[in-house]
Amino acid sequence: MIRNQKRALIVTAVAGLSLIGLFAVFFVVAEPELFWPEDVEVTEATLHAAYPADKAFFETAYEFEGKNLGLSGQRVVAGIIPHHLLAADLIADFFRNLEGADVDAVVLLGPNHFSAGQSDLITSAYDWQTPYGVLSHDAELLTGLQGIGAVAEEAVMHGEHAITSEVAFIKRTFPRATFLPVILKPGVDEQAATKLAEALFKISQNKKILVLASVDFSHYKTSLEAQRDDERSIAAIRSFDFRGVYRIEADSPPSIYTLLKFSQLNRARFSLLANTNSALLAGKPDLLSTTSYVTGFFVQGNAKLLFVGDVMLDRNVKTLVDGKGLAYIFGDLVKQRFFDGYDLVGANLEGAVTNGGEHYQPVKEFDFAFRPETVADLKGYGFTFFNLANNHFDDQGTRGMEETRKNLRDLGFDFSGCQNGVVADCSATTVAIGGKKVGLVGLSLVGAKLDVKKAEAVVSALKGSVDWVIVSIHWGEEYDQYVNTAQQNLAHALIDRGADAIVGHHPHVVQGVEVYKNKPIFYSLGNFIFDQYFSVETQQGLAVSLEFSDDGVAYALQPFKAAAGRITLLAGQEKQDFLDEVMKKSSQ
């Protein structure tokens, strides 16, 4: 109730400013197309102006209850904010999380809504009048971007609400920072966006720059349609899916692409703050036409990876997904922010990804095939990598393995691993994370003899060209909670040849953890998504987060359980009891 009353105050304030009834209009239609002050003449002597110009409007936006992501002491290099001022409190909450940050200059990217002006990249040499004082333009940034073709076109910038709606928030949060806006036409392609990101990165080596994208997301759809669009958009952002960014539902994919490239160069990862839409904010969920909003930060830090165990999407899991969707399975984990803040999320994919999820010869007793659409939906939760080396990769024969690789490649997933017992070129791949390279090796020895010398050679050769090597191994005995000597000997041998971490799976239950020569070995993470509902142990699992730095690798264990197929993290005494049991297994 308080939130709705405060939003009413904002509506009143804006209507009082004659912003052609901005918020009032939003309660009826999706989005105003034009709301800049027509009475401001742009001349060589004038400043550009924030709009609205009333400080009370912005202060009211800050009165809403917000979310604190605890960013103090962390280096935020970029972020995403809306410019649709129905979401003014979301913008305020974004900037509230950055209060006290050390920022020399803010670069604001956004859409050229009307494709106005001559240049594809339009900037400004003017300062900006805001309710909090004058926001000065940054001459150094201006010169640098003019060097790659950006042009100052003041008449165009004067009318662009992707910029005018944000400058007051920027001045309030960073009173001593300088500023440069850049609006991008829809025709700015990947090459031009990359060039812009690289220019900003070069300047940022000598100046603390915060790059923001002022972007609204799904437009003119129902609330439910917008939410589905946003899931795909957030997945592309979180996973740095450069191939998919230009297909997201947003008013400036080129701005998002530039932001992602800049963040990648800075080795920063995305952390979501909020996601909603105008129908929900207006309290009218049945509106047929909405605008959606995403806010979040790109935080610089060490490479951080998350691994889970077996993922099987056939049989009873397929039935569950068809009926309730992955949102049911992962609903609690999303609320617990389980997937947030990782450069890579990986799992053992326990089956083939065939066209249409078809089953081919040979027929096996346990015979798994997954639809590409279901696997694609995992991207929405941050999954980027799969180990294929296991005893089910070849369930659908050679055709199934070929389709799996093609489908995963087409969907934008990284993967490694050959069929069970095989060590070859397909055993390894390399993934770039920021300025670092991670080698990912997949091995399987379930009922098959593995050529250990070949496996060691793969690890050794890969180590010479990457910063870190992680080996995923399908091994051990099903339902055995204790490690055997063969597992331990192989793990030690691979670490001796250069592996930095070992991630195991296949037993369908959790096994112990060992640190050998300061390198962690997770012998079995157990099931993550599986329909083995017959025991407590097969419905429990372990996720492991790995953080790599120049000092080595640190890890954290996150135990979880499944009930009726829905996964939730363990907490409190239940979590402690589980971890105590893992430690007992580790000491055997």
Automatic annotation (TrEMBL):
This is AmmeMemoRadiSam system protein B. It holds the Pfam family Memo. It comes from the Bacteria. Residues 304-532 form the Capsule synthesis protein CapA domain. Belongs to the CapA family. SUPFAM superfamilies: Metallo-dependent phosphatases (SSF56300). InterPro entries: Capsule_synth_CapA (IPR019079), CW_Biosynth-Accessory (IPR052169), MEMO1_fam (IPR002737), Metallo-depent_PP-like (IPR029052).
